[in-house]
Write a structure and sequence with these properties.
Distance between the termini: 32 Å
Strand content: 15-25%
Oligomer: single chain
Order of helices and strands: HHEEEHEHHHEEEHEHHEH
Strand order of the largest sheet: 1-2-3-6-7-8-9
Radius of gyration: 20 Å
Structural class: alpha+beta
């Protein structure tokens, strides 16, 4: 993250989309309008999925076999035994084949709190350690407090080799804006939620042989005075003491390009004997 040599995007279309992502900025906050009432995040996600589609088109032009999948909003690219699943803004799950439940789990975006707690520290231990001593959720009723709750990520990328999961990449899209639209300092709001999302990723990652966390954010994080650009990176380095924790926060063209190039290199079109 940051400070490394510049990366370039392989097609003019991808460069155009990356520049749109970097330049994107939400409108100033409006009174009496909650985060759920604003559409900027959805617009940015749509642009980001154009980026994935552009990357997929490039892989196809290099010789990767492009397939629809029975999994909603994903395209599959195959090359010499390696398979890459990318999000898509173009297609739904229209392939004839029935979904493979194992692969469906690889493409999961939602993770139930109860399942994560059951994995660690275990439901019984959670009750013993943390359950309230009185009230509706006291004692054995504690799981009812978080039952039906969960964390959903925006997208995922999956790397598969000869039918084996190599890596699951959980993806979050984040947009920022300056306070009052004045172009000086970044407004906080929902961006602090990313810290919680990163901690949830830390738990989710234990479900897979390898799982990383990729944040695609707009360039406002690097344009305005703020604590997030450096703090997200400090947080990622601190948490990397856990061997399975890998987080990359991208908010500029060369950073999007780095993420794309890693996937292109992994597919290694035409480079394997």
């Amino acid at each position: 993250m940051g400070g490394d040599s510049p990366h370039r995007l392989p097609t003019p279309l991808l460069l155009d989309i990356a520049e749109m992502m970097e330049a994107f900025e939400a409108a100033p906050s409006r009174a009496n309008t909650g985060a759920g009432g604003r559409r900027e995040g959805a617009v940015f996600e749509s642009v980001a999925r154009q980026f994935w589609d552009g990357l997929g088109d490039h892989l196809g032009s290099l010789g990767a076999t492009t397939e629809l999948t029975p999994y909603d909003r994903f395209r599959r690219f195959r090359s010499e035994g390696r398979t890459l699943y990318l999000p898509s803004g173009r297609v739904a799950g229209t392939a004839a084949a029935s979904p493979d439940e194992r692969r469906r789990s690889w493409l999961s975006l939602k993770f139930d709190t109860a399942d994560l707690v059951d994995r660690y520290p275990g439901t019984g231990e959670a009750i013993r350690r943390w359950a309230p001593t009185d009230g509706e959720y006291a004692g054995d009723s504690y799981p009812q407090m978080y039952g039906g709750r969960g964390t959903t990520f925006d997208d995922t990328v999956v790397l598969e080799d000869e039918g084996v999961l190599v890596e699951k990449v959980l993806v979050e899209y984040k947009t920022a804006k300056s306070i009052g639209g004045k172009g000086v300092a970044l407004e906080g709001n929902a961006h602090e939620r990313l810290s919680f999302q990163a901690l949830q990723y830390l738990e989710v990652a234990t479900k897979y042989p390898s799982c990383s966390f990729l944040v695609f954010a707009n360039g406002a994080f690097a344009r305005y005075k703020n604590k997030y650009h450096v703090s997200f990176r400090v947080q990622a380095e601190r948490l990397s003491v856990f061997s399975w924790f890998k987080m990359d926060h991208c908010c500029g063209v060369h950073e999007y390009a780095r993420a794309a190039q890693r996937l292109i290199d992994w597919v290694s079109i035409g480079s394997r004997a």
